[in-house]
Amino acid sequence: MDLVQFAAGKTLSSSAVFLLVTVLLLAAAQRVSTSIKLFALQSAIITAQVMATAYTEKSAEAWVVAAMVFGLKVIAIPSTLLWLVERLKTRRAVEPTISGAKAVFVAVFMIFLSYAAVQPYALESHIAADALSSAVALILVGAFLMVNRRKALMQIIGLLVLENGIFLAALATTFGMPLVIEIGIFFDLLMGILIMGIFAFRIRDTFDHLDVTKLRRLRG
Amino acid sequence: MILLLPLLIPLVGAAVLLGFGTGGRARVLALVIGAAEIFAVIRVVLAVYFEQPLQFGRFLRADALSAFFLLNLALVSGLALVYSFDYLQHIEGNRFSSPRWFYTLVFFFVFTMVGVCLSANLGLLWIMMEATTLASALLVGFYNTRGAVEAGWKYLIVCTVGIAFALFGTIVLYLAAIRSGLSPDAALDWMALMESVPRLGGEISLLKLAFVFVIVGYGTKVGFVPMHSWLPDAHAEAPSPISALLSAVLLNCAMYTLLRYDAIVARAIGASFSHTLLLGFGVASLVTAGLLIIVQRDLKRLLAYSSIEHMGIVAIGVGLGGTLGLYGALLHTFNHSLGKSLLFFAAGNVRQNFGTSRMDRIGGLARSSPQAAMALSLGTVAIVGLPPFALFVSEFAILSEAFAQSQILVAALFLATLSIVFGGMFHHLSGMLFREEQSAASTRLEWSEALPIAITVLGLAWLGVHIPAGLQGLIERAIAVL
Predict the structure, then answer these.
(1) Do the chains contact at A195 and B174, CB–CB below 8 Å?
(2) What is the mean pLDDT of residues B46-63?
(3) B188 touching A, CB under 8 A?
(4) pLDDT tens, B258-316?
(5) Ramachandran region, residue B201 (left: φ > 0; alpha: ψ -120 to 50; beta: rest)
(6) Among all residues of chain B, which has the CA nearest to that of A208?
(7) Which of A98, B31, B125, B244 could tie B344 with a disulfide, CB 3.0–4.6 Å?
(8) B56 to chain A nearest CA, in Å?
């Protein structure tokens, strides 16, 4: 049993590093499908983190949450998005507004920023600083992906990364919200992806492209 | 049990409509379900008013504040349903764009907003607020034109990101509550939080952080400047009954959530922090939207900016605080929802008759369709805050609170903006009424459209002259809750 305890401890302490790697890769990713797979990988790391927390805190609720994260964010949502990419038959490239190399620099800057921002709170309240800073980094980079990428699908992925960050923040600070609330949030997330998918089809059908920067009829 | 009905009826109703709402049946079915829903909501309001707050399980609760917003919800959604009866006739019925889907989504939308008002738990409140966005996004994109799809996408993305920030704020508040010793189940319960306010007072920095995220997050849904970018698009592109629901119920529901958070934070760490933020956002929204009203070219966008302006006024009332400020703010949400529904109903009729809502293509209304012109003018007179209509009373209350606290700058900006809005609105109105270039393709105003318009006009005039004792009592009890 000591081995499992050891593994759980290692997962908690090292997952922040893996998450930051996925963030940097996301900033550099050139294809929509790559970004989706990176999101799935990121969610898998978070699943491991939830499982480690469930083990160390001996919380049955957290095991349910881990199962939901795995089913929803590692399997259901990524496969739905990959199916959408197939069906929409758009060009594969993500078409960023600033190039991949610069985007990685922006992401690195945001990681620094999140460490700097979290430090005072973490010192004061005995929270794992690494986990919380990676959560804030995910939130910032998710928002950055949303404004940097032109594709409607990439905006969805940015939103999902942002949501992962918020989930991680709750996990790092309070071991997650009560189970009923978590289930409700997951349900909203699933419905949100469904409706965004419907809109992705509509944007393609009415505009013949998925480039949201060209959606600028409504102004003023 | 009495609390469960207003949530179950629209859900079951939406399922029934989806299953059996084909052909012409959806419109009649919707009126029946709507009547049942309004009856159920009014029953909750009366029970709270005459007895005491209701509780159902751990997650549902209704007190006087919820009852006040539920009354508003029941009234406006009833009017919007009646108005939709003939308004929907011209819709052909594509996928997702048939009367059947329209009413299914409307009842789901109503379900989520009732859920917002009845949530006892701040987590459930967040879930319901996010669900309002999801339920109404397809309604905003209902016409499936380029503009509608764009507005729907923008609405979905901007509000979901905004609401995500509110979730972060909620988590921070949860953390503060856990650290001050509440159990995980009680740490998101509004009543439990209000009762343990003295203990929460130790977590000043966390509470401030939480409130900043919450006001940015839910403020996006209220339409505060600078997070308002979704609002004019969504209001302009949605079908008119939906614009009325968005403006008159959804924005109020978002304001209601801010009131709940404001109450906790203001009691725990003193009112100055949260009230200053609200005052700042309120003044920014009022002034910016007031100036933008002058340059609008589209009738429904004009009305949308006016909604931002009025939400700014409400935020100023809450931010000033005091009995008169809060009283004015609550009364103003009610009055504004009557006035704005009236205007959106009238604008919907104009848009149907002219085939556009661009104001430079609308002219000669006074001659060609006098009823619509009358409705539009009465609505404009009411919304700019002229007596004898009700908005004058609530704006006057907020203004006198500002003077009483000698917030001269706020009062001056308030008065200046109101006069600019006054000029701008009447300039646009007179153009549409008297310019003699265009005439409408048809000038029909069906009874189902005229009836809600008449009810709102009467309501505005009545509340302007005399506020009934029941409503007065409800508002006073709602203030006592805070």
Answers:
(1) no
(2) 90
(3) yes
(4) 999 999 999 998 888 999 999 999 999 999 999 999 999 999 999 999 999 999 999 99
(5) alpha
(6) B146
(7) B244
(8) 16
